[in-house]
Amino acid sequence: VSAQSVQYPSFHFGIRGGLTVNSASFSGTNLSGDSKAFPYGGLAADFKIAPIPLYLETGVYYMKKGYTIEENGHELKVDDHYIHMPLLVSYHIYINDNMAIQPFAGFAGGYVTKSSGFEGAVRLGCGINFGRLYANLGYDIGVTKNTAKGIKYSNNTFFATIGFNFLGSR
After folding, report:
1. 119: closest CA among 78, 167, 70?
2. pLDDT tens for residues 53-65?
C-alpha cells in the first residue's frame, strides 16, 4: 500500500482588478451618504505558512472611496485615494488539482493620499481559483475614524475582483 502525498503550491502571484462599493458609518449623527462604485486593482501574492493549505495573503492595490452627504442644505463631498495593503489568512480547500475555494479573513490597511493618513478595516471574504484564473468577493468593516468638516465617519467597502495568477498555480 502506498500513500499519496498532495503537493499544494507554496505561493501564488498575480494581478487583480475589480470594483468596490463604498458606504460610510457616521458617529453621533443620523447622516447617511450615497454609496458609490469605483475601480479597484493591483498585485496580489500569497505564501503557504503550514503543512496544511493555510496561506498568508498580501498585496498592493489602488482604491478610491467617495461619498456625497447632505446636511441642512449643505453638501459634503468625500473623495479619497488609497494605497491599500491587506494582510490576510486564507485556507485553500482544493476541490481538484485545478480548483480551490479560498475563504479569507484579516486586516486591510491603506494610506490615504489626500489626507496623508492611515485607514484600517477588518476584511472578510472568499475567493475561488480555477487554474490560473481567480475571483473573489469580500467586505471591509472600517475600524478607523476619519474626519471631514468636523463629521466623524468610518468607511465600509464591498469588493469583487477577478484576476490572473502568473506564478504558483497548477
Report:
1. 78
2. 999 999 999 998 8
